[in-house]
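User: My advisor asked me to double-check a structure prediction for Endoribonuclease L-PSP before group meeting. I don't want to rely on an old file, so could you generate it fresh from this sequence?
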Amino acid sequence: MKKVLQTNAAPAAIGPYSQGIEADHYVFVSGQLPLNPATGVMPEGIEAQTAQSLENVQAVLQAAGADLKNVIKTNVFLTDINDFAIVNSVYATFFKENPPARSAVQVVALPKGANIEIEVIAIQE
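Assistant: Sure, here is a fresh prediction for Endoribonuclease L-PSP from the sequence you gave:
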């Protein structure tokens, strides 16, 4: 059974997709841009953008009754791979113990001119 996740605590989808999907014991969170859900404004700089993207991920997970500790895989998309060390330092504050498997890749561009987008897969406990 598939359940569409929607929360006002994360930015609304900017296309024909869901913020997340809950299926069986999994939660799939669509790529989260660093948009503040209340204002629609994107913070400046990769450090603040990384934190905002992860806060948005966390909000969608919470809509499914999950949390960051449930995440088993992340995909990080960066417009500049040279930001990797900064992203790692912020990412480590969100995943303090038993971090999930992860991929990080450089892409040519992201929607809305973002520098980062993060998607995750989590399990329900």
